Fold this sequence. Notes:
This protein has 394 residues and is α/β, with parallel strands linked by helices. It folds into two domains: 11-44 and 309-391, Alpha-Beta Complex (Aspartate Aminotransferase, domain 1); 65-296, Type I PLP-dependent aspartate aminotransferase-like (Major domain) (Aspartate Aminotransferase, domain 2, 3-Layer(aba) Sandwich), CATH 3.40.640.10. It is built from 14 helices and eleven strands. Strands 2-8-7-6-5-3-4 form a seven-stranded mixed beta sheet, sandwiched between helices. Strands 1-10 form a two-stranded parallel sheet. The protein has a two-stranded antiparallel sheet with strand order 9-11. Helix 5 (128-136) links the parallel strand 3 (119-124) and strand 4 (140-145). The longest helix is centred in the C-terminal third of the chain and has 33 residues, at 298-330. The radius of gyration is 21 Å and the shape is globular.
Amino acid sequence: xxxxxxxxxxxxxLALMQLYKDDPRPTKxxxxxxxxKNAEGVTPxxxxxxxxxxxxVDEQTTKAYVGLAGDPAFADVMIDLVLGGxxxxxSIAAAATPGGTGAxxxxxxLIRMANPSARVFVSNPTWPNHVTILNxxxxxxxxxxxxxxxxxxxxxxxxxADLADVRAGDVVLLHGCCHNPTGANLNLTxxxxxxxxxxxxxxxxxxxxxxxxxxxxxxEDALGVRLVASSVPECLIAASCSxxxxxxxxxxxxxxxxxxxxxxxGLTQGSLNFLNxxxxxxxxxxxxxxxxxxxxxxxxxxDWAAELEEVRLSMLDLRKQLAAxxxxxxxxxxxxxxxxxxxxxxxxxxSPEMVARLRAEHAIYMVGDSRxxxxxxxxxxxxxxxxxxxxxxx
Length: 394
Ligand code: LMR
């Protein structure tokens, strides 16, 4: 039986992690996978997470099953964090999932279950796993233009032109903030135009929000999601706690299904529960409980928000340093976009050959599409990267 299996192409981001690990050069710089690292190159456990975990160890009395949709208290705090009261709680069905990827997967399955002929419009480019999961599920995928290779900003006219083809019942996948892999994001005026287009076409938005708090701030990063959720008849939201709580390996996420018709909530909730049961039964609980503890305890919440803000500002600072150094070395403003982008990533706009040269000649690792993880840099490595970029002719 096993001999019938086919080789699967390696996930480019995860393969790069391995290449980096195997590189013996002590000067190597990892700008690959989307994991936050501080100036010492460490991905710390956040203070509030440690405190909440200690409390859990001391006070938790059972590890018995919770429920197919996870702990309702987790859904409540996450809905509040992401949607901030933009839509009434009783119009939202929600289920905890193994990480943001789990939420994305369950959302696609829900779409397929409700409308097998729905096409899913995804930005070109998007997080590669969006594409592979859709292909794996046999769902039809349509790309819409998103990145302007010239300005390294959003090709908004191209995006709107392509989304004009959306038919009623099709799904439009949007990144809530901190677009992965480009770092280029919609402004509020553009979000409003997207909402108008969705209302006109009958397209159903699905928003993947994995980096809330990494862009312009916790509430600022959620403005687009809140606008969409409060404006359209139905939408799906896949939220991740991996990055903003730094609990990557705990696999903590939430899928939300919002419907203006509150009568649909029970039916939708039942389907979310069913999908969880079929795929993994009960969702992981530890990370969700830590998040709930933090968000319901005023002191822990304030400490978490403060630490997250430090993380956000440190990435913003690195963006500014890199853009300034590149301006100094190139004598031009053509890298100004790095300071404009938000979140963990920026797409440099370099060719795969140039990315390979950065790796071979300078031991600098970024994803083949020239996505770099800003958080992989520090004061010392910013000038090294800037010089390597210029030397490579990018
Ligand atoms: C990334 O884009 O690097 C992260 O979301 C990690 C992953 O699972 O790909």
